[in-house]
From TrEMBL:
It comes from Zooxanthella nutricula. Keywords: Repeat. This is SMP-30/Gluconolactonase/LRE-like region domain-containing protein. Residues 1-27 are annotated as: Disordered. Residues 1-10 have a biased composition (Basic residues). Signal peptide: none annotated. It comes from the Eukaryota. InterPro entries: 6-blade_b-propeller_TolB-like, NHL_repeat.
């Protein structure tokens, strides 16, 4: 608050904090691409901005990654939006099982904490999904070579300044580092 000299009032130089819905048609879960006012999500969890300014959403119960463009269009980026599973490959064929965290690298690659598949996935700029670390659908706790390692319900994900992927390994109660 800034006093208003000579007047019996105070004014604020800062706007009042407020909350507004950014995307999603209602408080009901669902699956729908389109304008942000009509799009539907089911348990959106992880969020990141990509190199183009798109908001990437880990839509957990729809088992997909969604992209929200700066002009307000929502589309499925990878995964089916209707069926869970564990499939690497082109974006429309890729399958996730409760993607919970997502982070964008400086080169545009996305890294995903795939909770129920117990692994870390990578989505390249061309939309192709692949496994970065873990043995899909096999939980556990094993360090070592990335594709032989084991996770137990990874949920959060971040990148350090050196480009390593840091994973919150929920079921193992620890943080793990993956060197891509």
């Amino acid at each position: 608050m800034v006093p208003s000299h000579g007047r019996k009032r105070a004014r604020s130089d800062e706007a009042e904090p407020s909350v507004h819905t950014v995307a999603g048609a209602s408080r009901e879960k669902g699956y729908a691409d389109g304008p942000i006012s009509h799009a539907k999500f089911s348990c959106p969890r992880g969020l990141t901005l990509d190199i183009c300014g798109n908001l990437i959403v880990a839509d957990s119960d729809n088992h997909c990654l969604c992209k929200i463009t700066p002009d307000g269009l929502v589309s499925t980026l990878a995964g089916s939006g209707e069926q869970d599973g564990y499939v690497d490959g082109p974006a429309p064929d890729a399958r996730f099982n409760v993607p919970s965290g997502v982070v964008a690298a400086a080169d545009g690659t996305l890294f995903v904490a795939d909770f129920e598949n117990h692994c870390v996935r990578k989505v390249a700029l061309d939309g192709c999904a692949s496994t970065l670390a873990g043995v899909g659908e096999e939980e556990g706790y094993v360090d070592g070579p990335a594709l032989s390692s084991r996770f137990f319900c990874p949920c959060g994900i971040a990148m350090d300044v050196e480009g390593n992927v840091i994973v919150a390994d929920n079921g193992n109660h620890c943080l793990r580092k993956v060197t891509p």
